[in-house]
Design goal:
Length: about 350
C-alpha cells in the first residue's frame, strides 16, 4: 500500500514538477569534448563495428543534408547492454536500441520476434525506472514482402500490438513512432523513454492509427501521431512519420508532389492541434529537425523546391527508405519546440 502511494506520488509529482529538457540533439559531426555526455549517436548508412550501446546505425542511404544525430546530455550518463538491448540513461531519459536478426525472425516468425522484443524492452524500461515510451523508431527490412496478412509490416503490427496491449488502456498512451523499410536483413528498434509520460496528440485530419480498419491488417498500428513533452524550458512535439493519409486512406497514389503537399498539410494540422491543446498561439512551435523518407531517390529533386518554401525546409534531411504502404511515396518525421522559455 505504501509502495503504491509512493509510486502514485512520484508519477504525479513528476508530471507537475517539470524538468528542463534533459538532452540536446546536434549534428553527428559536432565535436564533443566529453563522451560522458553522449546519450546516442544515430548514423545513417553502412554498418560500423562498434559495441558502444550508444552507437545506432540505420541502414538507409542518405540523399541530402545530414540526418545523423548526436543526442547530448548535460549530466553524466550510464550505459549498458541487457539481453541484447543497448541503453544509455541520464536520470531523466533512457535512449536504447535493440536489433533482431533475420535468424531470430525465421526461427519464431516476425510477429513473435517483435512481440518478444517489445516485451523485453518494456521490462528493461520498468526495471531501470523509465516506464514511459516517448518515441520509437522501427526500421524493418523487406517491410512490404509477403502477401496480404503475411506482409512483414502487418506481421510487425501484430507483434507490436500484442506486446503494447498488455497494458490496460494502452491506446490512450501510445508514443509517436516511425516504421520504415530498409534494404538488408533483420529489424532495428531504437527509442527514447522517460520517467514521466508524454502526452499523445492525434491529427484531426487523420483517423487514429490504432482505429484503422482491418483492410490494413489484422491488428492496427500502435502509435500516436505525436508525443508532447512538457519540459520547463519549453514544450517539445515529437512527430511520428507523417504521410499522405487522410482519414485512413492513402491519397494521391502515383503523384509524389501531391503526396508531399498533403503530408505538409498533415504536419500543419498536427502542429496546430498541439498548439490548441496547450493554449499556445499559432506557430508557437518552431521546427527543429526533420527527416524525409523517399522510396525512389530520383524523385527527391522534384520535392526540394516545395520543401525550400517551408519553415521545415531549412532543417530537413533526405533518406531513401520504403514506406509501409506501397501507394505511399514519401513520409516526413521530425520535431517542433517552443524556444526561449
Ligand atoms: C500512416 O499514417 C503512415 O506503424 O509505426 C507512419 C508512422 C506510419 C508510424 C507505424 C506507420 C507508423 O499510417 C504509416
Amino acid at each position: 500500500m505504501r509502495l503504491l502511494l509512493f509510486q502514485f506520488l512520484t508519477t504525479h509529482l513528476s508530471l507537475h514538477t517539470q524538468t528542463r529538457r534533459p538532452y540536446r540533439v546536434v549534428p553527428l559531426s559536432t565535436p564533443v569534448a566529453n563522451t560522458d555526455q553522449v546519450l546516442a549517436r544515430v548514423r545513417f548508412g553502412h554498418a560500423v563495428t562498434d559495441d558502444d550501446p550508444r552507437t545506432i546505425v540505420v541502414p538507409l542511404p542518405q540523399l541530402s543534408g545530414d540526418a545523423g544525430e548526436l543526442w547530448l546530455s548535460d549530466t553524466a550518463v550510464e550505459t549498458g547492454w541487457s539481453h541484447g538491448i543497448g541503453y544509455c540513461e541520464n536520470a531523466h531519459v533512457l535512449f536504447g536500441q535493440h536489433r533482431i536478426s533475420e535468424a531470430e525472425i525465421s526461427r519464431h516468425g516476425l510477429d513473435r520476434a517483435v512481440f518478444h522484443a517489445y516485451v523485453r524492452i518494456e521490462q528493461l524500461l520498468v526495471a531501470r525506472g523509465y516506464p514511459y515510451w516517448l518515441r520509437i523508431w522501427n526500421y524493418i527490412s523487406g517491410i512490404l514482402d509477403g502477401d496480404n496478412d503475411r506482409e512483414r509490416y502487418r506481421q510487425f503490427n501484430l507483434g507490436r500490438h500484442r506486446a503494447l496491449s498488455i497494458k490496460p488502456g494502452f491506446e490512450t498512451c501510445l508514443p509517436a513512432a516511425t516504421a520504415i523499410g530498409t534494404p538488408g536483413e533483420g529489424l532495428l528498434i531504437y527509442f527514447l523513454a522517460g520517467r514521466a509520460p508524454g502526452q499523445p496528440v492525434e491529427n484531426p485530419r487523420q483517423m487514429n492509427a490504432w482505429r484503422y480498419p482491418q483492410q490494413y491488417g489484422p491488428r492496427s498500428p500502435s502509435f500516436s501521431r505525436a508525443s508532447l513533452l512538457d519540459w520547463s524550458d519549453g514544450a517539445e512535439l515529437l512527430v511520428s512519420g507523417t504521410a499522405s493519409v487522410v482519414g485512413h486512406e492513402s491519397r494521391h497514389a502515383g503523384d509524389i508532389v501531391a503526396q508531399l503537399a498533403e503530408t505538409l498539410t498533415n504536419l500543419d494540422s498536427l502542429r496546430a492541434e498541439a498548439e490548441r491543446l496547450k493554449g499556445f498561439a499559432p506557430n508557437t512551435f518552431k521546427p527543429q529537425t526533420f527527416k524525409l523518407y523517399v522510396v525512389d531517390r530520383a524523385q527527391l529533386p522534384r520535392l526540394q523546391p516545395m520543401l525550400a518554401a517551408r519553415p521545415e525546409g531549412a532543417c530537413v534531411s533526405g533518406l531513401e527508405g520504403t514506406i509501409c504502404r506501397n501507394d505511399l511515396h514519401v513520409e516526413i518525421e521530425g520535431s517542433y519546440r517552443v524556444h526561449g522559455a
